């Protein structure tokens, strides 16, 4: 992971005039230092690679190209906040809708396995005419599909969050990438589905042998086996060398390190869909196989720990829905008493993060900033009370997508509006 953070700045008192001779001397000096360092077995820093900041960058030659690009030391991005087996995306620091691969949230059930792609394959068997085994090179020969979509953990809400909570800590278990791979329907056609096929078992190669049942309708619709993310091979924490991507479905079904797909006529009732990812409801009932992520939004700025000054600001955030496109986002600055329609920034793609913004003039009075998303099916993001009425108090933290709010104090401090689940 790329190191970030501010570097200690050294004082620069003067910069000599730049001439051909001074440039040549600097280059030869750096080269000599590098040769001497190589001979002694030591790594010598480049004369132009220090933390010094020249008063006029046009009078000093810059560094040359590198094998891998790095962010500026002045671009202060929060690291992924790690909580045990999960790490969240710093939503408050990002722009646009694509999450850098090294900041994509992670959720593991038994750590990240180390897999040599030369020894990895995907097997498709069960209710098929021809059981098949696809090596990675085989998958690359099929027509590629590319799709931009979000992935969100079904437990993406910190229900015990206090006032000093950032968007990353509150619901940072959602990220968006451009994924490339091969359509799962293409591979299933190669194997030949039985007429009685109704469900698939997708199984991973991690130590937990993570496995989920997938309905055949989803498999034949927009599911695909991904081998690339944002133009590069998947990173190990994202399932290298291959993972399943199910646009709009809860994150645990996007099985990473995919090794096996078994076709059957009924769900497999695995550990992950019995002891976990089943939601108790009022009256002793439970909701199982609640795959689709409901519409949701989150204001990402201004949020904790911002300190506002009086004047104009733009309230910005993200909205998304597993049911399709976001068609509208509404923002309130008075705790939901009145709502204003925000501007959607950029294209609103299906099952994808969509940016929104609303100009707002803060006059110094207390305010409560909230947002709610509406998707193309007409679904409206619910209040916390509406969810409690349906699920009951103390509901398990799965598929909780309440309207969330940020309090602006009279001194300009911004705090999360912390509420319980009772």
Strands, count? 24
Amount of helix: 10-25%
Distance between the termini: 40 Å
**Superfamily at the CATH H level of the largest domain?**
Oxidoreductase, molybdopterin-binding domain
The CATH class designation of the largest domain is: Alpha Beta
Structural class: alpha+beta
In short:
Helices cover 12% and strands 29% of the residues. With 422 residues, it is an alpha+beta fold.
Task: Explain what the structure shows.
This protein is an alpha+beta fold and 422 residues long. The protein folds into two domains: 81-287, Oxidoreductase, molybdopterin-binding domain (Sulfite Oxidase, Chain A, domain 2, Alpha-Beta Complex), CATH 3.90.420.10; 296-416, Immunoglobulin-like. It contains six helices and 24 strands. The protein has a five-stranded mixed beta sheet with strand order 5-4-13-8-9. Strands 6, 7, 10, 11 and 12 form a five-stranded antiparallel beta sheet that branches. β14 (279-280) and β15 (286-287) form a beta hairpin. The longest helix is centred in the N-terminal third of the chain and has 21 residues, at 20-40.
Key terms for this structure?
single chain; 422 residues; alpha+beta; Immunoglobulin-like; 5-stranded mixed beta sheet; 6 helices; disordered N terminus
């Amino acid at each position: 992971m790329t190191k970030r953070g501010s570097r200690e700045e050294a004082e620069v008192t003067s910069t000599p005039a730049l001439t051909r001779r001074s440039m040549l001397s600097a280059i030869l000096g750096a080269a000599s230092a590098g040769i001497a360092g190589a001979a002694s077995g030591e790594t010598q820093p480049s004369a132009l690679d220090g933390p010094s900041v020249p008063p006029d960058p046009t009078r000093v030659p810059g560094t040359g190209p590198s094998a891998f690009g790095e962010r500026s030391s002045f671009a202060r991005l929060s690291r992924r906040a790690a909580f045990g087996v999960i790490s969240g995306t710093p939503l408050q620091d990002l722009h646009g809708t694509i999450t850098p691969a090294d900041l994509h949230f992670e959720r593991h059930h038994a750590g990240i396995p180390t897999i040599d792609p030369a020894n990895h394959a995907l097997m498709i068997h069960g209710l098929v005419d021809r059981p098949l085994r696809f090596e990675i090179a085989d998958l690359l020969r099929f027509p590629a599909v590319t799709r931009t979509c979000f992935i969100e953990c079904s437990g993406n809400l910190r229900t015990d969050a206090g006032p000093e909570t950032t968007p990353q800590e509150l619901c940072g278990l959602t990220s968006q990438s451009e994924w490339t791979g091969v359509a799962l329907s293409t591979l299933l056609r190669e194997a030949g589905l039985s007429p009685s096929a109704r469900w698939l078992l997708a199984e991973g190669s991690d130590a937990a042998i993570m496995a989920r049942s997938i309905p055949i309708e989803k498999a034949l619709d927009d599911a695909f086996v991904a081998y690339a993310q944002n133009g590069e091979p998947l990173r190990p924490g994202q399932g290298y060398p291959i993972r399943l991507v199910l646009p709009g479905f809860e994150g645990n079904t996007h099985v990473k390190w995919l090794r096996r797909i078994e076709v059957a006529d009924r769900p497999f009732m695995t550990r992950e869909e019995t002891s976990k990812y089943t939601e108790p409801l009022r009256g002793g009932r439970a909701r199982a196989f609640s795959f689709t992520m409901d519409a949701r939004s989150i204001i990402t700025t201004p949020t904790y720990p911002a300190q506002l000054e009086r004047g104009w600001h733009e309230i910005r955030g993200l909205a998304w829905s597993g049911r399709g496109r976001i068609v509208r986002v509404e923002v309130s600055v008075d705790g939901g008493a009145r709502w204003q329609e925000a501007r959607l920034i950029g294209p609103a793609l299906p099952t994808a993060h969509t940016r929104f913004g609303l100009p707002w003039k803060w006059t110094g009075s207390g305010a409560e900033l909230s947002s709610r998303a509406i998707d193309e099916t007409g679904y409206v993001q619910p209040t916390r009370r509406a969810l409690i009425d349906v699920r009951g108090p103390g509901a398990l933290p799965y598929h909780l997508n309440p309207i969330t709010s940020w309090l602006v104090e009279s001194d300009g401090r911004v705090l999360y509006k912390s509420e319980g689940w009772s």
